[in-house]
Amino acid sequence: MADGTLDELHVCFSRDIGDGPRYVTDLLRQQSQTIADLMMSQSAVIYVCGDAQNMAKDVNTTITQIIQQEKGWFSAICQN
User: Cβ atoms within 10 A of the Cβ of 53, count?
Assistant: First the structure.
């Protein structure tokens, strides 16, 4: 983290019992403005570890929705 390679780390576990977000998509939505700004203004890269078959699709959809909501972009632009 000291060299700027990793600025923040957020974790979310669907099987944990607690007050925090249960799913990655919930955590992404909580950070929607930050995510949109980082991706669109600073070319940030977001890494997500988890189920590639189902969760990946949901994460992609959520990120697309975040950019649409925060930046006012249309779906076709967001997916390219």
Answer: 7
11, amino acid identity:
V
Sign of the dihedral through C-alpha 24, 30, 32, 38:
negative
Q: Which SS3 state, helix, strand or coil, does residue 65 take?
A: helix
Provide the residue range defining the domain that includes 20. Answer: 1-80
What whole-number distance in Å separates Cα of residue 69 and Cα of residue 57?
A: 18
pLDDT in tens, 17-37: 777 668 889 999 999 999 999
Cβ atoms of 64 and 33 closer than 8 Å:
no
Place of tokens 């969760």: 55
On whether the pTM is more than 0.85, the answer is: no
Domain count for the chain: 1
Residue 35: phi and psi, rounded to 5, are -65, -45
Task: Report DSSP state, residue 53.
Answer: T
